[in-house]
Amino acid sequence: MSIEIRDLSFRYDHSTEFVLDKINLQIGEGEVIALMGASGSGKSTLIKIISSFLRPTVGHVLINEKRVKPNRPHRQIAYVSQSSVKTLFPWLTVRDNVYYPNKLRSQLTKKRRDYCNQLLEILRISDKGESYPLRISGGEQKKVSLAVALSYKPRIILLDEPFSGIDFNLAEELWDVLHHDFQIRKPTVLLVTHSLDEAAVLADRTIFLNRSRTLSRPSVAPRSPGREKWPRHAVLASAEMAPYKTELINEFNNAIRS
Q1: Given 9, 193, 198, 225, which residue has the most CB atoms within 10 angstroms?
Q2: CA distances from 165 to 170, 179, 189, 203, 256 (A)
Q3: pTM of this prediction exceeds 0.90
Q4: How far apart are CA 27 and CA 203, in angstroms?
């Protein structure tokens, strides 16, 4: 599924200042885009608008050329926020949280249950299946949120700094899971991140929000060299990656100064 943002601007009701101003962006079907920028540049706001949690002040978002309606989340969109525990139901077990999106869509077949349980195995939290979200660690909560997002095989995945607040080793472990899903299912993905490694490893393209809230496309290769190599250590150590990351750093610095 494709995503298109047309002439989008946004400001909160109590403010006269626009958080986002005249944003235009196209994400092709199966493309993985990393969105970077300084704190306060509107990255999370943009992803919430695409998710339909916020209504744009001007302009609109289209999914497969159809307008997104505010407060009407698309059934094929998965959203993973920075705060994992807030997106989990504390009264449901870990396993039932992962089952829930399929149950909501009347898709909880034996095959889909098996797939959900396989996700728990891959994420190494199958032993936490009967635990409750508030009884597991923050890192485990991140894994559960990711399992919930992947459990119904969504065609669009929106990731709002999903690896913030966890150590690098765990983040790398979760990169593996996402990379495998991206390669097999080819979902359309928008990843908000502050990590150049994340952007280089997971994304096809990296786009920056500058301080004036307009999108600037980086003058780097349109496809990250890291997407063709795996495992992650080969990606980060590859000869092509060092100059690519240098260009990303330069573009990021230009964006936050503009």
Answers
A1: 198
A2: 10, 20, 21, 21, 23
A3: no
A4: 12
- Give me 248's structure tokens: 């990303």
Q: Measured on CA atoms in the order 154, 157, 159, 163, is the torsion positive or negative?
A: positive
Range of the domain at 144: 87-153
- Whether 247 and 223 have beta carbons less than 8 Å apart is answered as no
Say yes or no: 134 and 116 in one domain.
Answer: yes
Identify which of 207, 160, 210, 195 has the alpha carbon closest to the alpha carbon of residue 54.
160
| CATH code, 186 | 3.40.50.300
Say whether pLDDT at 153 is over 90.
Answer: yes
- Domain membership flag for residue 82: no
Distances (CA, A) of 73 to 46, 63, 68, 79, 142: 15, 11, 8, 10, 22
CA gap 70, 53 in Å, rounded: 6
* 174 plus 234 within the same structural domain: yes
Residue 138: name the closest of 104, 117, 165 by CA: 165
pLDDT of residue 241: 67
Domain count, the chain: 2
CA-nearest of 21, 28, 80 to 56 is 21
CB atoms within 10 A of CB 26: 12
Q: How confident is the model at residue 154 (pLDDT cuts 50, 70, 90)?
A: very high
Q: Return the exposure string of 148-169: e unless at least 16 CB atoms fall within 10 Å of the residue's CB, then b.
A: bbbbbbbbbbbbbbbbbebeee
